[in-house]
Amino acid sequence: MEKLARKQVQALTPYLSARRIGGSGDVWLNANESPFGNEYNLSLNNLNRYSDCQPAELINAYASYAGVKPEQVLTSRGSDEGIELLVRAFCEAGEDAILYCPPTYGMYAISAETFGVERKTVPLTDDWQLNLPEIERNLDNVKLVFVCSPNNPTGNLVNRNDIIKLLEMTKDRAIVVMDEAYIDFCLEASTVDLLAHYPHLAILRTLSKAFALAGLRCGFTLANSELIQVLLKVIAPYPVPIPVAEIAVQALSEAGLARTKFQVLDISANRAYLQAGLSAIEGITVFDGWGNYILIEFPDGDALFKAAWNEGIILRNSPIKNCVRISAGNREECEKTLAFIRNYYQ
Ligand SMILES: *Cc1c(COP(=O)(O)O)cnc(C)c1O
């Protein structure tokens, strides 16, 4: 069967998600999921009918949360589908390119590869910021520039001034896609206010992280309406199942938002606990994280990752040498993890 697939698909290595890697144990700090399982009501009445392509109640609720107009919001199956829609709508296969700055999230590359779109990479600088001169030298044929902030897996924010310089540099040439999957943990760092000045800015958001709904598959693209209209041309006719919209609207209600705010504070406190505890261990470097995870450099990252794995503490190894990413789970998970690492280095 493989031989019948498109050549690009034959050559493709699928994204190695935390789920696909697997593992077994009782501490799961590998996928930046929320430790909270919240309850929702489902009516399940209208399932004989198709859903709206862009359910108005959901769009209005997210627009209000994000501080934009409803016509500046598109909802999709997770922000991963947002990435794919952008590639499909703006990049000509075999002609155009996307540009991204590793180490960063893996799905930009996979979406481009799937559609036969060239991938250009300009690595982040040593302090994980944009290398603007190098980006400018590589902009030929580039239609989309992906910037992740807070960046996964490094955890840092990208300097706002550099994002503005990038937007100036790419005017009338390419779209800048800000991946803000973790922005709900540091909302003041959002670039959403820049939408008013830059029609070529698109922002990816999701309910998977701070809103504790990774399994729901609900994400958003924020952009000016002209850009949103282009994406609506290529989206599936019924991308949002009725129960998904129902739950997402509850998550974005006044009570839902208050709960998320509280949970974000709780998770951030656990992240600070991990950060402080790990920093006290000699030989380990803990990097500041702005999302619900931190990146840590160990003397031997692979060995630490495997030892934790064998103890049922599932962390995420990273492409950065000796670095392991740890999600901020509940306090008990963080305590177990910290105790394990402390013991390991004693
Ligand atoms: C988790 C994550 C996403 C994907 O979010 P979904 O909405 O679950 O598809 C996108 N970007 C980054 C950087 C992420 O870490």
From TrEMBL:
Highest taxon listed in the record's lineage: Bacteria
Classification via PROSITE patterns: AA_TRANSFER_CLASS_2
Transmembrane segments: none
Keywords on record: Amino-acid biosynthesis, Aminotransferase, Histidine biosynthesis, Pyridoxal phosphate, Transferase
GO BP, sorted A to Z: L-histidine biosynthetic process
Residues annotated as domain Aminotransferase class I/classII large: 41-339
Catalytic activity as recorded in UniProt: L-histidinol phosphate + 2-oxoglutarate = 3-(imidazol-4-yl)-2-oxopropyl phosphate + L-glutamate
Pathway: Amino-acid biosynthesis; L-histidine biosynthesis; L-histidine from 5-phospho-alpha-D-ribose 1-diphosphate: step 7/9
Single GO MF annotation: pyridoxal phosphate binding
Enzyme Commission (EC) number: 2.6.1.9
Cofactors (names): pyridoxal 5'-phosphate
Family: Belongs to the class-II pyridoxal-phosphate-dependent aminotransferase family. Histidinol-phosphate aminotransferase subfamily.
Quaternary data: Homodimer.
The protein's name in its UniProt record: Histidinol-phosphate aminotransferase
The species this protein was found in: Vibrio eleionomae
Encoding gene (name): hisC
